[in-house]
Amino acid sequence: MSFLLEFVRDPMTVAAIAPSGPGLARVATAAVPRTGSPVVVELGPGTGAFTGAVQRRLGGRGRHIAIEVNARFAQQLAARYPMVDVVHADAVCLAPVLAQRGLSHADVVVSGLPWAAFSDDQQHDALSAVLAALSPHGVFTTFAYVHARWAPPARRLLQSLQSRFDEVVITRTIWANLPPALVYCCRRPEAHGATV
Fold first, then answer.
1. Is the Cβ–Cβ distance between 73 and 141 less than 8 Å?
2. Which is nearest to 30 in space by CA: 174, 153, 178?
3. Cβ–Cβ < 8 Å for 177, 21
4. What is the average pLDDT value for the chain, to the nearest integer?
5. What's phi and psi for 86, nearest 5 deg?
6. Which of 10, 17, 39, 68 is deepest in the core (most CB within 10 A)?
7. What confidence tier does 13 reach under pLDDT thresholds 50, 70, 90?
8. Distance CA 158, CA 165 (A)
9. How far apart are CA 19 and CA 3, in angstroms?
10. What is the full DSSP assignment across 108-127?
C-alpha cells in the first residue's frame, strides 16, 4: 500500500503503481557475481524489490549501496536491510556517493529508475553518472515495461544504451511481472560514453 501511496504523492519519481516482482528481480540482478567482493549499486531501489535479490547473491560479501531519491522509501529500506548502505540522494550523485566511501567505481549497477518518466536531460544525466562510475568490465542492468517499449522515452533509452555500451542484451519478457517487463543487460561501457 505504501508503494501506491508514494506513486500518488509523486508519480514522476515513483512512476509505477506496484513494486517489481520476484521474477524480474532475479533477472535484473543476475549480473551480481556470486564470488569475490564486488561493489554493487542499486539506483532507485524503491521498497527493495531488487534489494533482497542482490543481498542473496552477495551472501554477505562485497559492498551494496542503494541510492534512493524518495525519503520515505530510503528510510524503510534502511530499516529493512541493515546490511545495505542506503543513501537518500539522486542517481546523478553516484560518483560522489562512491567517492565519499573511498570507492573509485562500481562493478555492477542495477537500476530501478523510472526511465519512461524522465526527460531527455534526466536520462542523459543519469546514464552519464552510471558510465562515469562503472568499472571497465562492469555491468549495468535496467528494465522496461513491454507495453511502453515503443514509446519515445523507452526508444530513446535503448538508443542511448546501445550508443554507450559495446553490448546490450535484451532478455525474454518476464510475463509474470505486473506489468510484464524485460531487462537490458549492458556490458563493456564505452570509455567516455556517447553524447546521445
1. no
2. 174
3. yes
4. 89
5. -90, 130
6. 68
7. very low
8. 11
9. 7
10. EEEE---GGGS-HHHHHHHH
